[in-house]
Structures are given as structure tokens and as C-alpha cells.
Amino acid sequence: MPGKNVANETVSLQLHEDPRFQRNQQELRRKELGGTRIMGGTPVKKGAYLDCVAVGSQHEWGCTGTLIGPNTVLTAGHCHDCATRIFIGNDVTEPGRIIGVATKVRHPEYREDGYGNDLMVLLLEEAVDDVTPRRLAPAALIDAATDGRAVGFGRIDANGEFGYGRKRQADLPIASPDCRGESRGRSDGQYYGCHPGLEIVAGRRGLERDSCSGDSGGPFYIEGAGGEWLLAGATSRATKSAIRTCGDGGIYVRVDAYRDWIERIPGVELG
């Protein structure tokens, strides 16, 4: 079943020493103390983040996605084989709205071996008229972000085996907003296993707050002006140095880098 996976190569690195992460973690703590954030993996309140949907096949649910237009869901490219329908609601074991996928378009340069361009667009069989699609964050806002909020239906244990089905959220400090920096003498690409200019790195090894298997394709939001949450990334995989599937930091595809491709797909309607 597709899910957030540990990269093939494991490197012994102390990610918590990245000064960018330390700085942004302190900023997130300040926001928490100010009462503006709820940290940790907590269930999403009923009716919140309805644009975050479960993605699955006719037999099971296995990924997450984001409604970015009345008929358009964005998810991970590696969820291709299980993406035939979506679920709108907070728990796949409870009543909700299910809509079939009419067309799925994986990025033409998707690389399964290195999880490059790990995005896919789902065109639905019918438009969703009772949920507001999530707006995409602009590049400048993502570049300046110090933290974000991951939301998804994924699993909740370190090995990514248990707990799929209920929508949860976690606030995460950003280590690298664009994979173009460096830490401890290594480029972000070498250090985290991300693709420069195309991905965000959030969380770190041992943080115990993270996206997990089943969150793949799900939203990584950042807060814009006026408190509006905008879609900055789509969950892809664990960092290069992760020891476990979940809890050691994640990599999120920057959606602004792919906006032109998304808009060129016939039938796409962005919110």
C-alpha cells in the first residue's frame, strides 16, 4: 500500500543540530505559548480542513489528498495505483461523502526510484460544491515560513502500521523551505535527501511529531495574512536520515513549483 516511505539510503546524521531547525522550533514554541497553535498529533475538529480528503481504491483507503478546485484533488504520485475514489469527512469508518475519480494524471517526470516530482492530480467524477477548495501558497510566503501544519488520515505509530483512517494534524518546524541551503557542510539535497527548489523539509529525527504512512499526498499548510491556511506542500516521504518510517522528519513537494503544470491539465479548475 502506498504511504510515506523511508528513503532507501540511511545516513547517520544529527539533524537536530541544523541551526535553521532550532531557530524555527523556537519560533513555533513562541506561537504555542501565545495560544495561537496546538502542537502534536491531535484529531482534527469536526468540520475543519474538509479540503483534506482520504484517497483510496474500491477496497481500501491508503493515501491523503487536498481539494484544490471543485473537481480537482492534489495527491502524491506514488499513490497512483490506489487512487480511484476520495472520501470527504473526518473518519473513514464513519459516514462521509465518497466521490469517484474520473481521471488521474501523474506528473510526467515522476521518478519512483528517487521520489522526484511526486505529485498527481485527480479529476473527480462530480464537482464538490459544499467544500471550499484550498488556495495555493505563493512562493514568497513559503520561502519565509518557519513552520507549517501537516494534516492527514495516516497511521500513528513509528513503523507506520496502525491507526489509518482518522484525520489528524501536527504543527512542524521547517528545517528547509526549498532544499537550497546547507547544514554542517552538506547541501540540503545531500543532508535531507530532498530535491532543490522543489521540496520542503519539516521536522527532524526524534521529534515524534510527523506525517506518516497514509498521509502521502496530504496537505502541508502554512499560515498567511489574516490567519488563512494556504497549501504549501504535499506529503511525499521521510528524510534521508530517518531511522523509522514516522517521527523522524518529512519531505513535502512544493506545490508552487508545479502550479503551471497543474493549470495546464485539461479539466482542472483551481479554487
Describe it for me?
The chain contains 4 helices and 15 strands. The two termini are 30 Å apart. The radius of gyration is 17 Å and the shape is globular. The chain has 271 residues and is mainly beta. Strand 13 (219-223) and strand 14 (229-238) form a beta hairpin. The protein folds into 2 domains: 15-44 and 135-256, Trypsin-like serine proteases (Thrombin, subunit H); 52-133 and 259-264, Trypsin-like serine proteases (Thrombin, subunit H), CATH 2.40.10. It has a 6-stranded antiparallel beta barrel.
Number of helical segments with 4 or more residues: 4
Strand order of the largest sheet: 8-9-12-15-14-13
CATH topological fold name of the largest domain: Thrombin, subunit H
- Morphology call: globular
Percent of residues in helical segments? Answer: 10-25%
- Succession of helices and strands: HEEEEEEEHEEEEHEEEEH
Overall mean pLDDT stands at 86
Can you tell me the CATH superfamily of the largest domain? Trypsin-like serine proteases
